[in-house]
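Run log // design_07
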């Protein structure tokens, strides 16, 4: 095989187009070959033969002779099978898939590196090409251990390690940001790549549709503009109300003036004044008629504008939506290969392939669904011998289904395997120390199944390449919670297991409950609210000095939203008690707000990256009247409440005043060494101060934003966030920048001391200060006596 001067024969723009075409046809080949293995008919083989033919033609144009050879051999094999001259075996399908892997790999490497990569794989490519040719002659195929490209499951694992940002950057590097018009291949509608979005251009006279590639960033900006247009259009309603009020006031004024005019006729009012008065009344009538006309015109304009903005927003949302099938082209291949490697027979079906899914959610689904499928194949479905012994069909069933229901996206993965052994989970829960034996005995099956989603929790008896390392289901839960969804498990011993994922239809629009907290609106995603309760103060009970509310026999801890969000309590007191019950996987709390304002559908506006992470807030939105609203991060809220409980700083609902006198001054000690923390705590408490400790910089920062302190004492070298970073973060916060800070470190070099002081620390002490009065003296110097 010769590969001479291929970089001269194919410029990068043509290779660019080849990659686009190859990416489209590899999806057809991979899905089709897996299906043909189960159901070999000429109708199913024919589009695969055409896909191989198209790749061959595209490769020939750009001078990739090695690709031409493989594609030609695949085309001949598929053509022979289509015409009944050859029956494709499982080994034949393996070789055809290996050829497709080569094409697929070419779509993942840098354009300029394609010729060089093919040159380096020349021996393996020749071997594969020869093996494909031997299928036609009936000769034994050569060994195919040398694969020119990774198989689908390996590619899948590589993809899981990529973040969205790196993936976007990779696409930008291999694809210039310019619109490229592409006609999709037969029977292959849909977007061409994951990170760039295919937008449908004007419809053609034929059935074919043209597509243009648009960068994700541009689409996100377009989405934001469309949302703002919709908000602005809806904000015209107050103007209509104002105009109607003006009309009413105008009528009242006109009526009053007419009465004055009639009264003046019976008085000795000069004729000139009466004439002027009459002209004024006529002018008033003309203004009234014009005002009525303008109100009608404005209302018509307002309705048309809102309708147009709504259609614009709907179109942009529709552009973001992609068929469910676009997010899982490699799944049938992965299931086929894993089942074959493990000696299992599995019928894999996908239901709802055309179900529309937001592109951001679709991209996030790949890793979780991969984990669920691998677990189902490894843990759930039995071998043929085990199934026969259990009076089941030899072939196991694995179904992945996507559908819309009640304004949400529901994804269900079901298999008819052995089911989950809940008693084994119960044993593991006790073994890993998550619960005592007595407590575990009283856990329900549903509560036990929840433990499967904990990091590092696995019931596998041995670790394999597929599963058993204790990772996977926590990835599923993490992804689902990040997008505001939920996941649950149903299992029946001997009959199988189902995983149900309930997700929002799109991340751009959020259904939320608006609540009033200190006169400001906040939004809580409806998908993260367990219940809402309207009651009164007398319904609250106290146990161990903690308030709780009883709902359906559950004791729910009550927390004041003002304290969690660090906002002053409102002077206005609404009648009743308004509670939004929120939770994560392990904890549930009742968040007490001032008032419920009703449900809304909000256009989500991401927070500016320059703001960094804002505690308890995930995003923002604009209400119809143009006022901003913050969207609460429920997971962060629960963590904040846990932090308050840990530090015993939770005050009772109805007792919101912060004490200012008669209390000890509070100091936060931040150090990753337990010994150092305890030494500093005891020294300071012996001097009369109240001390709270944090285990590292990040823990210290989270504690600071939730509580009031008079002083911070911090180490420098700590995990997650070091002391210098913590100090800079404190000094960059308007509400904390005046907080005194002391650094206590083992480092005693002058450059270390200068670095700490320049960052904003008031004192820099070494840990030898524990043995004298330096630390206490510095504390008293900064904040006085306790």
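design_07 sequence
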């Amino acid at each position: 095989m010769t590969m001479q001067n291929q970089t001269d024969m194919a410029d990068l723009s043509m290779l660019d187009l080849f990659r686009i075409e190859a990416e489209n046809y590899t999806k057809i080949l991979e899905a089709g070959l897996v299906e043909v293995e189960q159901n070999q008919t000429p109708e199913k083989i024919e589009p695969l033969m055409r896909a191989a033919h198209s790749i061959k033609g595209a490769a020939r144009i750009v001078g990739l002779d090695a690709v031409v050879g493989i594609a030609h051999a695949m085309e001949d094999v598929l053509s022979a099978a289509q015409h009944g001259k050859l029956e494709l075996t499982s080994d034949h399908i393996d070789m055809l898939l290996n050829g497709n892997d080569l094409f697929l790999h070419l779509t993942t490497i840098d354009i300029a590196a394609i010729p060089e990569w093919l040159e380096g794989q020349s021996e393996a490519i020749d071997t594969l090409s020869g093996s494909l040719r031997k299928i036609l002659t009936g000769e034994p195929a050569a060994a195919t251990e040398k694969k020119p490209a990774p198989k689908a499951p390996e590619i899948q694992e590589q993809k899981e390690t990529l973040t969205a940002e790196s993936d976007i950057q990779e696409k930008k590097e291999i694809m210039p940001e310019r619109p490229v018009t592409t006609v999709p291949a037969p029977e292959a509608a849909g977007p061409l790549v994951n990170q760039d979005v295919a937008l449908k251009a004007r419809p053609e006279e034929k059935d074919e549709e043209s597509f243009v590639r648009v960068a994700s960033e541009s689409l996100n900006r377009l989405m934001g503009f469309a949302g703002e247009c919709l908000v602005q259009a809806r904000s015209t309603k107050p103007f209509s109300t104002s105009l109607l009020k003006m009309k009413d006031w105008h009528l009242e004024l006109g009526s009053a003036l007419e009465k004055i005019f009639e009264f003046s006729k019976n008085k000795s009012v000069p004729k000139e004044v009466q004439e002027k008065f009459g002209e004024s009344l006529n002018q008033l009538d003309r203004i009234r008629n014009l005002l009525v006309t303008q109100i009608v015109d404005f209302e018509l304009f307002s309705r048309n504008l809102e309708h147009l903005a709504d259609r614009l927003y709907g179109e942009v949302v529709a552009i973001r939506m992609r068929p469910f099938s676009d997010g899982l082209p490699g799944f049938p291949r992965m299931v086929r290969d894993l089942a074959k490697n493990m000696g299992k027979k599995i019928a894999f079906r996908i239901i709802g392939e055309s179900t529309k899914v937001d592109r951001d959610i679709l991209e996030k689904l790949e890793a979780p669904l991969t984990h669920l499928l691998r677990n189902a194949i490894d843990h759930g479905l039995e071998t043929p011998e085990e199934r026969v012994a259990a009076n089941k069909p030899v072939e196991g069933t694995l179904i992945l289904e996507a559908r819309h229901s009640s304004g949400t996206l529901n994804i269900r993965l079901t298999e008819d395997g052995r089911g989950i052994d809940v008693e084994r989970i119960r044993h593991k829960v006790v073994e890993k120390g998550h619960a005592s034996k007595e407590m575990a005995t009283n856990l329900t099956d549903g509560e036990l199944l929840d433990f499967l989603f904990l990091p590092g929790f696995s019931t596998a008896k041995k670790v394999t390449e597929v599963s058993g390392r204790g990772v996977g289901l926590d990835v599923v839960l993490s992804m689902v919670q990040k997008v505001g969804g939920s996941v649950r498990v149903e299992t029946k011993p001997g009959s199988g297991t189902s995983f149900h994922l309930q997700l929002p239809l799109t991340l751009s629009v959020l259904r939320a409950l608006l609540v009033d907290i200190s006169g400001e609106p906040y939004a809580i995603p409806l998908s993260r609210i367990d219940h809402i309760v309207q009651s009164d103060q007398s319904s609250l009970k106290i146990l161990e000095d903690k308030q709780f509310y009883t709902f359906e026999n559950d004791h729910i801890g009550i927390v004041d939203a003002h304290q969690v969000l660090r906002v002053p309590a409102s002077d206005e007191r609404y009648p009743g008690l308004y509670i939004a019950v929120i939770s994560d996987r392990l904890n549930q709390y009742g968040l007490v707000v001032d008032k419920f304002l009703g449900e809304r559908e909000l256009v989500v506006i991401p927070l500016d990256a320059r703001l960094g992470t804002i505690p308890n807030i995930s995003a923002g939105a604009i209400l119809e009247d143009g006022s901003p609203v913050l969207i609460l991060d429920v997971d962060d809220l629960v963590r904040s409440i846990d932090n308050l409980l840990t530090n015993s700083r939770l005050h009772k609902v109805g007792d919101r005043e912060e004490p200012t006198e008669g209390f000890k001054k509070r100091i936060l000690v931040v150090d990753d060494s337990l010994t150092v923390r305890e030494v500093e705590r005891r020294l300071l408490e012996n001097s009369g101060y109240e001390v709270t400790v944090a285990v590292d910089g990040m823990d210290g920062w989270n504690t600071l934003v939730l509580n009031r302190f008079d002083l911070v004492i911090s180490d420098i070298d700590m995990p997650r966030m070091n002391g210098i970073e913590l100090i800079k973060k404190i000094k960059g916060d308007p509400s904390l920048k005046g907080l005194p800070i002391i650094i206590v470190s083992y480092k005693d070099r002058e450059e270390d001391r200068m670095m700490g002081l320049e960052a904003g620390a008031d004192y820099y002490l070494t840990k030898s200060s524990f043995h004298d009065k330096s630390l206490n003296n510095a504390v008293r110097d900064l904040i006085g006596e306790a």
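Confidence is low (pLDDT under 50) at residues 1-12, 143-205, 656-662.
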